[in-house]
Amino acid sequence: MDLVTGGAGYIGSHFIKTYLNRFPESEIVAVDNLSQGHAGALSMSSRIHFEQEDIGNTEAMVEILRKYEIKTVIHFAANCYVGESQENPAKYFQNNCIHTLNLFKAMQICGVKQIVFSSTCATYGNPVYSPLDEQHPQNPINVYGSTKLMTEQALRAYSLAQGWSYVALRYFNAAGADESGLIGERHDPETHLIPLILQTALGKRKAVQIYGNDYDTPDGTCIRDYIHVNDLATAHIAAIKYLRENPGGEIFNLGSTRGSSVLDVINTCRKVTGRDIPVEYSARRPGDPPLLVANAEKAQRLLGWTTRYDLRQIVETAWQWEQHPQFPSGR
Ligand SMILES: NC(=O)c1ccc[n+]([C@@H]2O[C@H](COP(=O)([O-])OP(=O)(O)OC[C@H]3O[C@@H](n4cnc5c(N)ncnc54)[C@H](O)[C@@H]3O)[C@@H](O)[C@H]2O)c1
Q: Catalytic residues, which ones?
């Protein structure tokens, strides 16, 4: 069986749903400490074996890896707020690096040598060219990005020293929700642009904050690459196949390769919702690069993967979810 860490979280739960649809005979193990995730995100199928546990608990993880005879770990569990990582670096190094190393220890004890890892475009730092390919220098400008880069380096070392096979996937901006309406994005606090805009459209927030409209971009606002969460999910399935057929380590960017400015996204949300969405302009945030867009040619070529959703579909699925969230509060 395969094991998903952070399975009750946003991307992990969408991966699990896609995985169970793709492999109708399969079962899967989800480990989550519910520090951020929602148990409700795992109630969609009886083929999910949920273990409420912390990945940092090596002994418990050894037991779980043995109990289910795990072959491959798909590792989503992490803390992932850039702002919080700057305020509380220890929390991020502890959870994203040390707890991950404790998980690696359990994997080594049990002889589990295959892993897919959720990395991020935040490992690149300020772009020196665009779009960003996997060769772009990695100089993270925040603690969160540093913790993910350190984990990539640990994986490379385990691969060389212990013969592990890994794929590290550097996501750009995950967004959207599953069309079923059963699962979607529910972060607490929410920091991602599309949920913030849609919650404003619903009147739950007063206005959308736009941090800087004087960047060197066509409309002055920051440009990002939004990728639908189910497109990320299908890339993970391709990555599992890839690492089983290609021992060693590989890294792929996952993005739509299309850049959308903050104003593009707000205007798309206005069209989809048919609602007025007030905005407020404030100063640039330190450490926000003007432009982050993926070159995902390598994933297309080696994983045989392409994206299915454009920005409008991302917003439409997110809007369906925001109006009827299945786990609106608490976890
Ligand atoms: N959301 C994005 O746009 C984005 C972009 C790039 C990379 N990522 C990465 O993707 C992964 C998933 O992100 P997400 O948006 O789904 O976040 P999320 O917070 O929704 O999911 C993470 C899950 O991991 C769990 N978790 C955290 N620490 C744990 C621990 N020590 N033991 C067990 N469970 C633990 C949380 O409870 C949560 O359910 C993260 O590694 C994140 O860094 C996300």
A: 144
